[in-house]
């Protein structure tokens, strides 16, 4: 039975409240409720098994979690279909993959940040705990995988910090493990804004003020996990993306801004010198690529949550389809970066979800010698494509870059390894790159694969064996009902 929905606060919008988003997901038939799973491994295992077995898996809401007396819920697999990604980003639900990327890149190119509205209070303040009353493990925090170093509260959330010199806030997504009911581990990769804020403050011998939100509208998770332009608030960037300002409140102790309708918010501080071992944790690469190490401890000062709160989770595992929303946004950003670099006639850019950051596919309409190499180099080193890449493949405009079968076909039939592959060395990597040894983290290499017809003789390149478009369209129309019957009868 569906739970009754809390009436939406009149000051909030559809992009403020996870529960409003969930109701819409349920309306389009993409939400499944699972009751009775245990927080220790079962929630993570069920999520992974469902994603393995379904090409378009539903969002999963785990309820009545064993060991928690029915209190608290866990939401996983939020945006792993095109429809849910489009819903989150305020786009029509019937667009194709490249149409979503194209709409996003157009919107990003003219995006005007909209500062959030600061409300006096919000639904997240329904329940307040401080001091000895704080116990984050009253919430059903999963141990996602058996190799994880603990129970991971933060995998699809927000971590808010402040620059001690400028006062500028950063909203990032950095992993959070539970040590005790009132103590959390926070791991932030080198070079990230939150890490720089933390290091500046600790060097000054001062405690770091931190606020974290768990269970927010997925739009805010998208913003927190993207490379938002320097100097732009993630809240303002997200508001500009959907053309509606988001609603936040100032957390009572730290003054840091958090989503007004978040499910769970904590405030705490990091004291200089207070560290404990954190990790390991399976990361978005599909590997345990970072070791267990001493990381800062966040001592909780306050816990706020809604009634029957929902913890959002995005536990990485060996990639299959997960990462759809990251793929769409990164594809759009790289496409814009390539065009801003002066490369003409780019037909599409796609970052396949299983590859995450490691592969970029670009389709171009070739105009001059060296056009393919120019596009590849720009994609490999533009701001959105430079970090932790591996392969850039350039294909002609007749190849569907969202279909990896066609991409591999082009690579195997239109490239000659001795002429078509180049290696760029000493490029920007990071600690999560699984192929780089621990003592060499920070740098990697890129392969540029030109899988276009050789420009010098492209007009003499063998023709593709397929029916022509006119015949394809005519037969499809004349045999529409029969084709639908056959496809429907064999759809998995």
Provide a concise account of the structure shown.
With 492 residues, the chain is of the alpha+beta class. 27% of the residues lie in helices and 25% in strands.
Please report the total strand number as a whole number: 21
Helical proportion, percent range: 25-40%
Tell me about the largest β-sheet. 9 strands, antiparallel
Mean pLDDT over the residues: 91
Shape: globular
Count of separate DSSP helical elements: 13
Radius of gyration: 24 Å
The share of residues in extended strands comes to: 15-25%
Descriptive tags:
single chain, globular, disordered N terminus, 492 residues, alpha+beta
How does this structure look, described?
There is one protein chain. By secondary structure, the protein is of the alpha+beta class. The protein contains 13 helices and 21 strands. It has helices spanning 18-27, 42-53, 82-88, 97-109, 193-203, 218-224, 234-242, 324-340, 371-381, 404-414, 417-420, 469-478, 480-490, and strands at 31-35, 59-63, 73-76, 117-118, 127-130, 152-154, 157-162, 169-172, 176-180, 183-186, 208-214, 247-250, 257-259, 264-278, 293-305, 310-313, 346-350, 359-364, 391-396, 421-428, 443-451. The strands form 4 sheets. Strands 5, 6, 7, 8, 9, 10, 11, 14 and 15 form a 9-stranded antiparallel β-sheet that branches. Strands 17-18-19-21-20 form a 5-stranded mixed β-sheet. The radius of gyration is 24 Å and the shape is globular. The relative contact order is 0.12.
């Amino acid at each position: 039975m569906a739970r009754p929905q809390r009436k939406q606060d009149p000051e909030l919008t559809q992009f403020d409240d996870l529960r409003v988003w969930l109701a819409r997901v349920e309306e389009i038939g993409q939400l499944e409720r699972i009751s009775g799973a245990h927080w220790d491994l079962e929630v993570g295992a069920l999520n992974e098994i469902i994603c393995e077995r379904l090409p378009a898996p539903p969002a999963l809401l785990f309820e009545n979690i064993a060991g928690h007396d029915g209190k608290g819920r866990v939401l996983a697999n939020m945006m792993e279909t095109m429809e849910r990604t489009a819903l989150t980003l305020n786009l029509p639900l019937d667009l194709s993959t490249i149409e979503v990327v194209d709409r996003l890149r157009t919107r990003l190119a003219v995006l005007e940040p909209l500062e959030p509205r600061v409300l006096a209070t919000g639904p997240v303040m329904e329940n307040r705990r401080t001091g000895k009353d704080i116990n984050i493990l009253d919430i059903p925090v999963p141990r996602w995988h058996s190799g994880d170093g603990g129970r991971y509260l933060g995998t699809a959330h927000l971590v808010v910090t402040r620059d001690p010199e400028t006062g500028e806030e950063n909203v990032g997504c950095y992993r959070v493990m539970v040590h005790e009911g009132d103590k959390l581990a926070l791991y932030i990769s080198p070079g990230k804004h939150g890490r720089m804020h933390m290091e500046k403050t600790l060097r000054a011998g001062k405690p770091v003020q931190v606020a974290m939100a768990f269970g927010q509208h997925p739009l805010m998770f998208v913003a927190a996990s993207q490379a938002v332009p320097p100097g732009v608030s993630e809240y303002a960037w997200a508001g500009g993306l959907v053309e509606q300002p988001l609603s936040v409140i100032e957390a009572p102790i730290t003054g840091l801004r958090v989503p007004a309708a978040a499910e769970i918010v904590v405030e705490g501080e990091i004291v200089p010198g207070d560290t404990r071992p954190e990790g390991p944790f399976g990361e978005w690469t599909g590997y345990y690529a970072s070791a267990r190490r001493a990381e800062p401890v966040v001592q909780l000062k306050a816990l706020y949550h809604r009634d029957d709160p929902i913890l959002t989770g995005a536990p990485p595992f060996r990639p299959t389809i997960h990462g759809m929303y990251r793929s769409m946004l990164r594809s759009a950003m790289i496409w814009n970066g390539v065009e801003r670099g002066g490369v003409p006639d780019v037909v599409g850019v796609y970052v396949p979800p299983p590859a995450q950051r490691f592969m970029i596919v670009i389709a171009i309409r070739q105009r001059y010698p060296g056009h393919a190499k120019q596009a590849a180099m720009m994609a490999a080193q533009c701001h959105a494509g430079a970090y932790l890449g591996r392969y850039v493949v350039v294909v002609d405009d007749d190849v569907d870059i969202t279909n990896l079968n066609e991409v591999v076909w082009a690579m195997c039939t239109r490239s000659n390894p001795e002429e078509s592959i180049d290696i760029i060395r000493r490029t920007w990597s990071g600690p999560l790159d699984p192929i780089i040894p621990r003592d060499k983290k920070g740098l990697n290499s890129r392969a540029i694969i030109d899988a276009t017809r050789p420009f010098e003789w492209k007009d003499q390149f063998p023709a593709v064996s397929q029916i022509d478009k006119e015949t394809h369209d005519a037969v499809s129309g004349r045999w529409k009902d029969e084709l639908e019957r056959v496809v429907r009868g064999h759809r998995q």
